[in-house]
Amino acid sequence: MKANCWYDQYDVRVEDVPDPKILDPRDAVVKITSTAICGSDLHLYDGYIPTMEKGDILGHEFMGEVVETGPQVKNLKRGDRVVVPFPISCGDCFFCKRQLFSLCENSNPNAAVAEKLWGHSPCGIFGYSHSLGGYAGGQAQYARVPFADVGPMKIENDLPDEQVLFLSDILPTGYMAAENCNIEPGDTVAVWGCGPVGQFAIKSAYLLGAERVIAIDRFPERLRMASEKAGAETINYEETSTLKTLNEMTGGRGPDSCIDAVGMEAHSCGIVGIYDRVKQATMSETERPQALREAILACRKGGTVSVPGVYGGLADKIPLGAIVNKALTVKSGQTHVHRYMRPLLERIEKGEIDPSFVITHTMSLDDAPKGYEIFQKKQDECIKIVLKPWANGLLEHDAKNGA
Ligand code: NAD
Ligand code: ZN
Ligand code: ZN
């Protein structure tokens, strides 16, 4: 089969690789009809996540058709259409029983590596380094799905892939980020980052009762989408001071909750940006946490800072004093996708949200290297790319549906 493989920083290649096979009685093999490139994939592409090996198959947002099931998978059969959640979770352990699926303790065979970094290991994740299990990902024509009796959700309506694909990750991620804010009626929520996760965090904050959502980014097309499609007020942080503007917009009090939907590769202007880049280059800091710093400083006293943005290691100059002295709550996590898939599918079916609005590009899997490049460089107003593994290069890489 064809798969998009990681080779090095800024080097991914579509190659012929062996088809996946059932290895465990709880596995299924899925023929992938649609897959996507995530902001999290950029952390791999940009070389910030250790324990990647040459030839690793990327991708953790995918859906398709079941072609084979192991003998213990009773809930699925050949031909079923499924969306696959990115965390690999057993369904039976201490954490899965508490619906904390991304913390599953039975799905990362390389837990020891993650334990050295973080004390304990999260779950295994498709296509996301050997420290998170070394699983082959879903930017491919087929994928082996472990614990297929627990993860994949059957789609029994005729909604197109584009409307349900993002149940695999970014829609639940935006939703959990907003849910973690414990939004109360009348609340103002600020969201750093207007990538796909930020867009869904904005939408979800409104679904959960926020009165105002203020979104922060610097790319006009992303700010436009946040405003026109997700309904946020916007701040372009290159044109104005985010902290000052947020204070002015909230009568000096600050937003009730602040969501960092940027993560470890934040862009920043001025001295602090240079500081982070130098420290990151010399490996004395693994992150550039500028959005997180601002979210903490901006948040009102007693408020919540919610962090869906991915961080991998150690960050510098985090204003801990503000967390303590403003009595802030900080919540984060890889998303417990399984627990949100069905309720969010119902919201899509009812027409409360149509997640396909974030898609700007549809490309053939063959064009994945080009896709990574334009997504990483934010070229061609690219916000979200869907890859079609069976399109044989027929799709034009710029088949935009218009943001
Ligand atoms: P993306 O790269 O498309 O979007 C990031 C956005 O942040 C960009 O629009 C960028 O311009 C903006 N940004 C950069 N620096 C900023 C700053 N200082 N202030 C404000 N905005 C800034 O990525 P995405 O797909 O939307 O993902 C966002 C984050 O969420 C990534 O870190 C990704 O790894 C993470 N993520 C987490 C989970 C999870 O389970 N927790 C799941 C999916 C994605
Ligand atoms: Zn993702
Ligand atoms: Zn488990």
Report on the structure:
The protein has 403 residues and is of the alpha/beta class. It has helices at residues 39-45, 94-97, 111-118, 161-164, 170-179, 196-207, 220-228, 242-249, 270-281, 290-298, 320-325, 337-349, 368-376, and strands at residues 2-8, 11-16, 28-37, 56-57, 61-69, 81-84, 87-88, 124-125, 142-145, 153-154, 188-192, 212-217, 233-236, 257-260, 304-307, 329-332, 361-364, 385-388. Strands 3, 5, 6, 9, 10, 17 and 18 form a 7-stranded mixed sheet that branches. A 6-stranded parallel sheet has the order 13-12-11-14-15-16, sandwiched between helices. Strands 2-1-4 form a 3-stranded antiparallel sheet, covered by helices on one side. The chain starts with a strand and ends in a 15-residue tail after the last strand. Residues 38, 40, 60-61, 86, 169-170 line the site of one zinc ion (ZN). Nicotinamide-adenine-dinucleotide (NAD) is lined by residues 38-40, 42-43, 169-170, 173, 192-198, 216-219, 222, 237, 261-263, 266-268, 290-291, 308-310, 334-335.
